[in-house]
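[job 4471] stage=fold_predict status=RUNNING
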Amino acid sequence: MGQEIDGEVMGEQFKGYIFRITGGNDKQGFQMKQGILCNNRTRILFRDRQQGYRPTRTGERKRKSVRGCIIGADLAAIFLRVVKKGEKEIAGVTDVERPNRLGPKRRNNIIKTFSLDKKKDDVRKYVVAREIKRKDKTFYKSPKIQRLITETRLRRKHQHKAEIVGRNKTTRESLEKYEKLLSTYAKEKKAQKEAAKKAEETK
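[job 4471] inference complete, writing structure tokens
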């Protein structure tokens, strides 16, 4: 896997092509996995965030069968990617244009892709939409733009900031009131002690 091969090995129609091996599977459907240096099937222990395994519980591990990354004689399918185009066209691959089905959905990525101005251009006009035809009607589907700064978002942000400032102000006022109350209480206590002391001295 990952190695580049000359297309002429597979026939004259692929002369000039260079392909990269991206994967494959055997007759039973077990896929090749990068990093396992063998040309047969083996069982490895999978954990979370590994290709070909989705845990059902947190921390779950499971042993599964996969094929090594070295090509063997018992492979049923090998997946290739065109690195360099050759002389002749490959029917259904290089002779047709296949536009990207999905475009970028994050605001900054849309701006970067279409070279937009962050302040002037409206990002919502540049989202890649798909046309879907159903019997008698046609409609378009487009992804929800992530991290989009709208008037609603700014209003909520200002409101949230005003709430924080208001809470801080209320806290400061409450603290000042509490400190005043403590000082008046301490003065009253001191005055009571002095009055009691004078009363004892007069006796």
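[job 4471] summary: Residues 27 and 116 are 49 Å apart (CA to CA).
[job 4471] exit 0
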